[in-house]
């Protein structure tokens, strides 16, 4: 889970606060001491923590919150709102060029993940209907150009390269000209990693900026570096004038200090967050939703957006029709498993569901073994088309053959068939309840509210 350690401490603090019923000023002070400790241990900037706690206390004690019917919930809401404000308040979007192409320049330290992030960002923008061009302007790191070309090929996104003999400034200028000539409306410049104290290489970035006038300069920074990430952001911002930050490795066991400090210290908003190694694991950063996730309130909006982006609408409508006509088969069951896998790691998805988003709840559920889905797929794929459509006809000899073909046991095959039958029964019950409800509603006087 994102910020697991910080989230666990804050959620436990607020759980104790809820159990108190009526609150005194001393109760709030005690809770805020715990919040202060949790934030400092998460590597949040000291001054940021000090200001944050002061604002929360002023709002919590200065608005008759303690006399309300639900004082604990009110205090938690204040913390949630202030935490969202700390990270920027609202989502910050990419600056668009009035006349294409929009030029996005990625900068950062060695090993921050710029090249992979460039490909991920291109993938995000393409899904939004843009036509991105990746530009290989890292001429120093061995195989950097080749890496970007491989990633571009995987995504079917073109990569502009002029080799490693030309200067990055010339490559950046030529990439922008190439984009204009080929109808590409976004250019993503992948620059070389450098230390912020390396004067010569920082001068090179300034030269690229002055030559191509990017509409967006984004710092790619590793969230796991904690306070170092904030110091790096400050240095790059003073030199280049950053427009935003992309935090990578936010899915790791990071303490979260960078995400909670970088906006307050530098004024640069976090625009995207890397949440995994796959090329679709880059999300727009929503401060309010991140605050909800840290405090265990879930993040249904992101989950819905993921589903809308990944699920094929025609296939979903076809499946809906099959469910309603009681024709749900193992082929449909497999199709749904494959659709769910597209949304990302299951543990991450569970963390977005309100009620399951708390660290305590996720621990109770235990680690989700995603290999189980692989076994289910293998078992269903080992069946003939006829068997998938007639699972009730799968006898003992067929089950043994399916087990051998999928590298599993007969018990595994039995378990999958049982799970499928339970799913089908549950669907029938839900359909029956829906029909009964509509039948009863039709007998009521007046028009139905949904008509």
Short account of what is shown:
The chain is of the alpha/beta class and 451 residues long. Helices cover 57% and strands 9% of the residues.
Identify the CATH homologous superfamily of the largest domain: P-loop containing nucleotide triphosphate hydrolases
Number of strands: 8
**Tally of helical runs:** 20
Uncertain runs are: 441-451
Q: What is the fold-level CATH name, i.e. the topology of the largest domain?
A: Rossmann fold
Taking the sheet with the most strands, its summary is:
8 strands, mixed
**What helical percentage do the residues reach?**
55-70%
The CATH architecture of the largest domain can be named as: 3-Layer(aba) Sandwich
pLDDT averaged residue by residue: 80
Can you offer a commentary on this structure?
This protein is an alpha/beta fold and 451 residues long. It folds into three domains: 4-86, Four Helix Bundle (Hemerythrin (Met), subunit A), CATH 1.20.120; 102-297, 3-Layer(aba) Sandwich (Rossmann fold), CATH 3.40.50.300; 305-442, Orthogonal Bundle (434 Repressor (Amino-terminal Domain)), CATH 1.10.260.30. The protein has helices at 4-18, 25-41, 46-61, 71-86, 114-127, 144-155, 168-182, 199-212, 227-240, 257-266, 287-294, 300-310, 313-324, 330-342, 346-350, 359-365, 371-381, 385-389, 396-406, 410-442; strands at 102-107, 132-137, 159-160, 186-191, 216-222, 244-248, 270-274, 282-284. A hairpin with a 7-residue loop joins β7 (270-274) and β8 (282-284). The chain starts with a helix and ends in a 9-residue tail after the last helix.
